[in-house]
Specification:
Elements: E1 2-7, E2 10-12, E3 18-26, E4 28-39, E5 46-52, E6 57-59, E7 67-72, E8 77-82, E9 91-101, E10 109-114, E11 118-122
């Protein structure tokens, strides 16, 4: 199983910056992909950015040029540096990790895991 601990959310003024972190722990054999999603009030959850084990990245068009995703493989941690924040970036941000991990059955499985979410509020 894999546990995810997120941090870094909070209140920031428009134009400001925040850095989110998500640390994965547990019986991890290999992390395939790490990413961030967000869900604003009344909207569906959407992809923000992902990074693969080969450091390939993909971003939502709405955040390109403003957000940067990175990972520290030694720490099993993914980061999201968010600059030039806008009020429309306000949402709960969720960490997502796809990993091959040990299971209670004893058979490793490739599964997607979600963090509990961290609130980012952009407001003056």
């Amino acid at each position: 199983q894999v546990q995810l601990v997120e941090s870094g959310g909070g209140l920031v003024q428009p134009g400001g910056s925040l850095r989110l972190s998500c640390a994965a722990s547990g019986n991890i054999f290999k992390i395939i992909r790490m990413g961030w999603y967000r869900q604003a009030p009344g909207k569906e959850r959407e992809l923000v950015a992902v990074i693969t084990s080969g450091d390939n990245t993909n971003y939502a068009d709405s955040v390109k040029g403003r957000f940067t995703i990175s990972r520290d493989n030694a720490k099993n941690t993914v980061y999201l540096q968010m600059n030039s924040l806008k009020p429309e970036d306000t949402a709960v941000y969720y960490c997502n990790v796809e990993a091959l991990a040990g299971q209670p059955t004893g058979v490793p499985m490739l599964k997607a895991y979600w963090g509990e979410g961290t609130l980012v509020t952009v407001s003056s």
